[in-house]
Write a structure and sequence with these properties.
The two termini are about 20 Å apart. The protein has about 375 residues and is an alpha/beta fold. About 40% of the residues lie in helices and about 20% in strands. The chain has two domains: about 200 residues, Glycogen Phosphorylase B (Rossmann fold), CATH 3.40.50; about 160 residues, Rossmann fold (3-Layer(aba) Sandwich), CATH 3.40.50.2000. The chain contains 15 helices and 14 strands.
Length: about 375
């Protein structure tokens, strides 16, 4: 598996959903994951972080980021060189794969296509990028769009994380004869009901990129309803380019460290601990191809307040949470207040049962088994 995103020491949440898929596939298969990324001022040209957990062999390759006038070219060459070195490392686990899996286009599929020709094995592609929904793909240059369509068409199969995303991919003129929707997988954890009884504990977990996640609207919502609502705290987990701006908004509105608390970046196990202590999750994104965090909250028996932004409406209904329209600040304030006063009326065991079988690693493993079988021509 060649992944465009994958957790690494400096960002343990980066592409964690890909790691969960790899873990599910590795239940019945040997899996080598290759992930290469650049780091500025890396003291060595290439650095390897290799780990193995039963059938899953992870190879994380960091390479020194070039920042010269020719950075795009040099970093591109270093990326492909890093992957080549990673392939050699992977051959210590098994000499030749039966299948190559490119996860998140485009450069991963370029590598997969090349390896497919050299090793004479098929490759498949998996997509979760929101750019097909936001218009970024359509706005891209002709060469990238044409190459994407060619590589997907030439592959032995296409996986999408949701029907919403698959429809958007089709709208961009991209398709394959072997297509399958396979959702993200989750850990199913019994609800421990660890909550702060003095205050309602609300959680928001997102990359702090406000153009997509619209966290600023949630902060403004908190400021507007705090005086007319039960005592509550909103804890925000994540990092991103807009973090300082969001902190400043909270400070100006007088809610920083009182009603709004920035917790910084956390690992996936730590996120689950926060979910266990929360009363409900809020997700106010403009686009989500799936929204793993919403699914993880449900797996802990926690209701969710989320936007109809793509993937979430495929698994959130009125038994597990509340859906609102994107960019509707009036609805956000109204339903946020509703959740503060009614979160405990949701049945946590019923919430868990709704997602337990549908998104378990066993279910995802089975779906990938069916998909791979067809891709290999064994159906």
């Amino acid at each position: 598996m060649i992944a465009k995103w994958y957790p690494y020491p400096e960002d343990p949440q980066f592409g964690v959903f890909i790691q969960k898929h790899a873990e599910a596939i590795a239940i019945d298969n040997k899996v080598v994951v290759l992930f290469a990324h650049s780091i500025a001022n890396l003291p060595v040209k290439y650095q390897f972080d290799i780990s193995q957990k039963e059938n899953l062999f992870e190879i994380i390759i960091s390479f020194r980021k070039d920042e010269s006038a020719f950075a795009n070219l040099i970093n591109g060459l270093r990326y492909f060189s890093a992957i080549r070195k990673g392939v050699k490392k992977g051959q210590t686990f098994f000499l030749k794969p039966d299948l190559i899996h490119a996860y998140i286009l485009l450069r991963t599929a370029v590598v997969a296509n090349y390896l497919s020709l050299i090793l004479k094995v098929p490759y498949v592609v998996n997509e979760q990028w929101s750019g097909y929904a936001t218009g970024k793909f359509s706005e891209g240059n002709f060469v990238k769009k044409a190459l994407t369509k060619f590589l997907v068409k030439r592959s032995s199969g296409l996986v999408s994380v949701s029907n919403f995303l698959l429809d958007k991919i089709h709208a961009c003129g991209i398709s394959n004869e072997n297509e399958k929707v396979i959702p993200n997988s989750i850990e199913v954890i019994a609800n421990s009901n660890i909550t702060n009884k003095e205050k309602v504990n609300v959680l928001l977990v997102a990359d702090q990129v406000d153009e997509i996640k619209n966290i600023s609207a949630v902060i403004r919502c908190v400021a507007s309803i705090k005086d007319s609502s039960p005592d509550f705290e909103l804890r925000i987990i994540g990092q991103g380019k807009d973090k300082e701006m969001l902190i400043e908004i909270a400070r100006e509105l007088g809610v920083l460290n009182s009603n709004v608390i920035f917790e910084g970046l956390k690992s996936n196990p730590e996120v689950y601990q926060y979910l266990q202590k929360s009363d409900f999750l809020v997700m106010n994104s403009r686009f989500e191809t799936f929204s793993l965090i919403c699914c993880e909250a449900l797996s802990c028996g926690k209701p969710v307040l989320a936007t109809r932004c793509g993937g979430p409406q495929e698994f959130i209904d009125d038994e597990v949470g509340v859906l609102i329209d994107v960019d509707d600040d009036v609805q956000l304030a109204k339903k946020f207040h509703f959740m503060l006063t009614h979160y405990n009326q949701f049945d946590s065991q019923k919430i868990i049962s709704k997602v337990k079988d549908r998104f378990s690693k066993e279910t995802v493993k089975k779906l990938y088994g069916e998909f791979y079988k067809k891709a290999l021509g064994d159906d």
